[in-house]
Amino acid sequence: MPNWAQTSHSPHSGEQSIARQLNRRFGWLSVLALLVMLFALFTAMTSTLFFSQRLLLVTLGESARTFDAFLGTVLGDLRATADAVAHSDNAGRVLRDALSRTPPIFSLTLVNLEGEIIVQRRRVGMPETAPLQERPWIRLTQNAQLYVSEVDITRFGVPFVDIALPVRDANGQHAADLIAELDLSALQDLVAGVRVQEYGYAYVLNERGELVAYRDLSVLRQGKTITALTGRSLEDILHLGTFLIAAGLNGDFAISAGLRLQSLPWVVVMEVPTWRALQPYMPLIFIYAALFGIGIALVIDGICFVRRFISLPLRTLREDVNQLQRGNMQHRADLSRFRYDEIGLLAETLNGMAERVETRTKELIAAHRLAQESTRLKSEFLAVMSHELRTPLNALIGYSGVLLDGMAGKLDAETRSMVERIDSNGHRLLALINNVLDIAKIESGRMTLVEQAVSPVSLLQLWRADVALLAQKKNLNLRMELDPALPETIYADKERLTQIVSNLLSNAVKFTEKGEIRLRWFASDEEQVICVSDSGIGIPAHALDYIFEAFRQLDSSTRRAYGGTGLGLAIVRNLCHLMGGSVQVKSTLGQGSTFTVRLPLKRTAAASNAVLSA
Predict the structure, then answer these.
(1) What crossing angle do the helices spanning 494-510 and 456-473 adopt, rounded to 10°?
(2) Candidates 3.40.50.410, 3.40.1050.10, 3.40.50.1980, 3.30.565.10; correct CATH number of 448-555+562-600?
(3) DSSP structure class, residue 385
(4) For the chain, which end, N or C, has fewer CB atoms within 10 Å of the first or last residue's CB respectively?
(5) Residue 551: how many CB atoms within 10 A of its CB?
């Protein structure tokens, strides 16, 4: 029966499931499609946000110029008032004129360097005359710098800041300070009137990050910094350039941008809620989101389809094939587990193929049994015939020996020659019958090995004695070498080992006309190697494939130059296999051949140091 398992492939031998490839490819294509939709959605959202950013930046620049113009006018009038006070004999009138010119200024106070009020003018209420206890502006005004206080919203419910600037006399010396209470209601109105994309808003921060102006006064009244309100610092807003998406004052994520004013060390910040910026494009975003959801659903449906109608049927079909590979020829695919599609047709075809294979297998098994029986009968026939032939042949050889020994009387020369020829051909025929009998025993499995302790030195001497006379007749040099690494004694079947070597040596002498015959016997790892080489005619390359077959010779014609039956090398090969070894040949036409026998080495004693060379 054929060994189907030997022809099957391992699941780990590199094969890839078609279903797995389909799942992988479909999955990658689906992921790619989803990524394309995500990229389109991201591009649309990003484009919208950048458009909002550009619009925000334009509005921010315009608002900053408006705020700078307002504050610049107030500061310019304050500086002109400070110069007028320094050159006027009536400071009160100068301050009163300044109040009338600049409505955002609520009061003006002229203070000397000791903190005493020289003159004060207010829009509402009586002027103060008591010396000022705190003068936080004095250090800046002494350095000719402008002082701007924190925002105060507790006076009249509107934001105020104090601005102090130095007043210098005719000699340019710091003589007094001019302090103005600036009402930021006008700035508050300007800030509250800023709109970006309808929902954007603006606010102003001082250098400490405190709100100066914002549309919601309740947030101003909290007196918190921008860090406390949003988690961002003023440096973060300005450091990130002009674009930032972060938490805004209203608690939503917003697009933010900040820009420093030129007139005061304040920063104008504008924000547009992100969801408001995206609102005009929300239908498109919803469409992309819906397409994304549909894509996800299609991917899941496709994977389920591939798994249900491709992966599982292919896996089932593969299990059916594995059953057949393991030799279960009676197994058939259950067609009810398949749909009537390509895979179902393939399963039906597999069943038909399995039926044909089962039929052919039964035929092969029957033919194999018949061949085995024929081989057995042939071997028995050869054994019986060899035995029957050896009985009269031994008698013939025995009587010819009696005649040659003169036991029946002296023979004349002509008669002796005839009897010698009878004896020689009888021995030759006996050797042929013995070879046929050995082949028959090996093929029928009746040949057994009888291992015993033998001496390699003794065996080598025996082999030399058997072949020395033949080599001497053809004037051939015979060399035999024994490896010192071989043990003094080994376990082996002496008769069969001698039969192997004798066949090889006989062939070497037969096919060598001049030169030498060399035998080397050495140990290699856990095996013994016997090499028989000659300088004979060699073997053609095409003949190396069949010289070990029974009854095969290089020249099979009736006029061949060398005799023999072609059983010697077949016996050598079969005996080597029986002993757990092998035989190989290397040959060059016209230069000679080398036969190498490898057999297991079964040690019984230490290695011999003897080297025998002849």
Answers:
(1) 20
(2) 3.30.565.10
(3) H
(4) N
(5) 11
Instruction: Report pLDDT digits (tens) over 560-596.
Output: 445 555 677 888 888 899 889 999 999 888 889 999 9
Return the pLDDT at 531: 94
332-447 fold: Helix Hairpins (1.10.287)
- CA pair distance 217, 160, nearest whole angstrom: 12
Residue type for position 270: M
Which of 291, 247, 315, 268 is closest to 20 using CA atoms? 315
Q: Are 106 and 122 in contact (CB under 8 A)?
A: yes
Return d(Cα 404, Cα 417) in angstroms, integer: 10
Q: Are 94 and 101 in contact (CB under 8 A)?
A: no
pTM over 0.85: no
Query: In the predicted model, is pLDDT for residue 390 greater than 50?
Result: yes
Whether the pLDDT of residue 513 is over 80: the answer is: yes
Superfamily assignment of 17-328 in CATH?
PAS domain (3.30.450.20)
Among candidates 101, 69, 260, 114, which has minimal Cα distance to 180? 101
pLDDT at 552: 62
- pLDDT of 4 higher than 50: no
